[in-house]
Write a structure and sequence with these properties.
Strand content: 15-25%
Helix content: 40-55%
Number of helices: 10
Bound molecules: S-adenosylmethionine
Number of strands: 9
CATH architecture of the largest domain: 3-Layer(aba) Sandwich
CATH topology of the largest domain: Rossmann fold
């Protein structure tokens, strides 16, 4: 009685094999687009790690709405920060000009695609942090986004300094020129650099060693150096509960934004956000 259709009166009854095939077709239809995107990406991108992409438009709007609520600002104001970064021609030119500077160690596409870093930028613009720390710099895309925010804050009368940490002495080559004047990279193990750093830290981005233990150790290392209203962002929050646990243990609030990349096969990471009202 395998996979053939029988009829009972006028209603066709599908056999189990046909039903299984139809169910498989439904499930597989969700993977057609990523398969097409893989082919497109193989042809158009050269990136090998730390992939870059834009956010799907609805996902971008959801991020703006989430940040507007969290920062108690107007939705349009957050969107304005997004547009400021997306329209920053100086930064786009800078990234394209320096894309190849990583030599054989790093491969960066020349196009500027910020993904969830739009959220990092808007938070840095809205809260005017005096001290920003990003652990794990890689090529320096996040570093450039954060220092671009600090440059605009400075022009508006709110100075701030960026510190990146990275164990790779070749990391951070994109942080050059005018962007480098807003801060520097501390080379060596992130935990050691964090222990040496004095606070207060206003904005902290965790994005170095992505093991759960290392992530938690970073939060412990900076816990007593955070300013009253400090915001802690976790780039590992789609994989672990360490930032959630840190927030619960310290009387902080926690929310998570889940990325949906546009025109890319990568399923997306996210932003864990730990904050105080
Ligand atoms: C995912 S990348 C960072 C991406 C970057 N934040 C961005 O916005 O593009 C992770 C980086 O963490 C660095 N890293 C890994 N383990 C580390 C450690 N123990 N201390 C400092 N940096 C580390 C790696 O060298 C790598 O450059």
């Amino acid at each position: 009685m395998g996979g053939f259709t029988q009829t009972m009166g006028k209603t066709p009854i599908l056999g189990p094999a046909v039903v299984t095939a139809l169910r498989a077709r439904t499930a597989l239809s969700y993977y057609k687009r990523p398969a097409v995107e893989i082919v497109r990406w193989l042809v158009r991108s050269r990136e090998t790690t730390n992939f870059t992409y834009d956010l799907e438009e609805q996902n971008r709007l959801h991020l703006a709405a989430l940040l507007a609520d969290l920062l108690n600002l107007e939705f349009e104001g957050i969107l304005g920060y997004f547009k400021e970064l997306e329209g920053d021609a100086e930064l786009k030119t800078h990234l394209a000009t320096h894309a190849a500077d990583g030599g054989l160690s790093f491969v960066a596409d020349p196009e500027a695609r910020y993904g969830r870093r739009l959220g990092w930028y808007a938070i840095a613009r809205a809260t005017k942090p005096r001290v920003v720390i990003e652990t794990g710099v890689d090529k320096g895309l996040g570093a450039c986004v954060l220092t671009a925010a600090l440059r605009r804050n400075l022009a508006e009368g709110d100075p701030g300094t960026y510190y990146g940490t990275d164990i790779d002495p070749k990391a951070g080559y994109l942080l050059a020129g005018a962007y480098a004047s807003q801060g520097k990279i501390l080379y060596g193990d992130s935990l050691e650099s964090l222990r040496r750093l004095e606070g207060p830290i206003d904005l902290f981005v965790n994005d170095s060693d992505h093991s759960a233990e290392y992530e938690a150790a970073e939060y412990d290392a900076i816990a007593d150096k955070l300013s009253e209203k400090a915001i802690v962002l976790g780039d590992n929050a789609h994989c672990t509960d360490k930032l959630l646990r840190f927030s619960l243990d310290r009387g902080r609030r926690f929310v998570f934004f889940s990325e949906r990349p546009a025109r890319h096969w990568y399923p997306g990471a996210g932003i864990g956000i730990s904050f105080r009202r």
